Each structure stands twice: as C-alpha cells, then as structure tokens.
Known about the structure:
This protein is an alpha/beta fold. The protein has a single domain (2-202), classed as Spore Coat Polysaccharide Biosynthesis Protein SpsA, Chain A (Alpha-Beta Complex). 45% of the residues lie in helices and 22% in strands. The chain has an 8-stranded mixed beta sheet with strand order 3-2-1-4-7-6-8-5, sandwiched between helices. The radius of gyration is 17 Å and the shape is globular.
Amino acid sequence: MHLSIVIPAFNEERLIESCLKSISASCAESYTSGLTTEIIVVDNNSTDQTARLAREAGAHVVFEPINQIGRARNTGAAAATGDWLLFLDADSALSPELLLDVLVMIEEGKNVGCGSTLSMDGLPWWANGIFHLWRRMSVTFQWAAGALIVCRRDAFEDVGGFPIDIYALEEIELSKRLKKWGRKRGLRFAILSEHPLYTSSRKITLYSPREIASQILRVFLSRRRTLRDKRHLSVWYDGRR
Length: 241
C-alpha cells in the first residue's frame, strides 16, 4: 500500500516543521509491512519561508497560485502517486496511534475513507461549546473535519475531488460525495474517535468571539452566497497567523 500525505500550506512557516516532524515520527512508529509513504506540501502562494522549510524537511513541494483550500488539496492530490490519500492541515500534528487507526481502517477493506475527531488545547468556554457541538455533528452525520480526511484515490477522482466552487466547508461536501460513492459499493465512511487528531486552536486566539460568531451567523443565514466568495470568509482567508 502506498499512502500519499497531502498538506495544503499558506504562510505556515511557524508550524510546518512541527507538522512534518509529527508525520515522520508517526510513520516510523506505525510502520506496517508493505507500507510506503510520500509527503506532499502544497505551497498555496505563500509569501514566507513555508516552501523552503518543507523542502529542507524532505517533503515534495508543489505550487498552487490560487489561494483556495480545496484547490490546494486537489493540486496536491494530482501530484500524488498513492492509492490512498491523507489530507492533513499544516497546523495539526499526526500521532502514531491515529495513523495506526487509519492503516487498520484501510487494511480492513470496508471503508472508502475516514475522518477523525479533533483535540484542541486551551479553549474558552464558548469555543469549547462550539467544538463539542461540531464533534457531535461530525460523528452523527459522518462529516470529516478539514484537518484530516483520508480516502481511496479512485473514489476521490471519481467524485471530482474537493469542490472548488466554494471556499470553505469543502470537506463536508467531499464527505457526502464519498459516502454516496461508497454506499454503491458496500463501503462506509468512518469517523475515527479513539485517538483524536491534535490541531491548533489559533483561530480562537487570533479572532474575537464576536468575529467568530459573525462568521458562523453569516454562513448559517446565507450559506451559498458566503461560501462562494472568500471575501465573506475572513476567518479562513484574511491571512492571520
């Protein structure tokens, strides 16, 4: 089995090295016979040292000039050679336990792919409430968080990859497409929960409760219009790091 790990990255010089180190350590500890891996970092038009640091860490770096998360992930998938794709955000850290859970899921042959529950440190009470609500929705509806999503390459290609007509929540749309693809073939889409993925809570520290509430409300009240224009998605695209 050949696993391609794809990391979209825009101005991630502060975190890209720790992300890549977590992947290397996890692959070393979770190695199974016949497993090969590759790491692809998609430089999404960064203006900092993201690309250089990723290359120095041994990753294969590809360039995507248009700042869009889904498009960057698709560019990485197009450069990948694996029969399974693992998309990981640059502000996350993969653990050996979670990677092993992913490999077991793949080897069982019963799933088209999976997502994972998340873990964040230092959340205030209001953010913790939102976080737990998302966790419940993710598990109930089998929606992957964008921080980690894994799928068969053939399924990914058949469903058209991440949608590029929206600028956020594209992982939910991909989850729905993969579930539909899998049902026709007797396969499931799972949300792994035993070993959550650690991901940064930086959005909570970089944005005020009012800004985050306003962003959520805008998506809720005008979903289509908001998701199709990144000018309305400051929490994702204003570049705060």
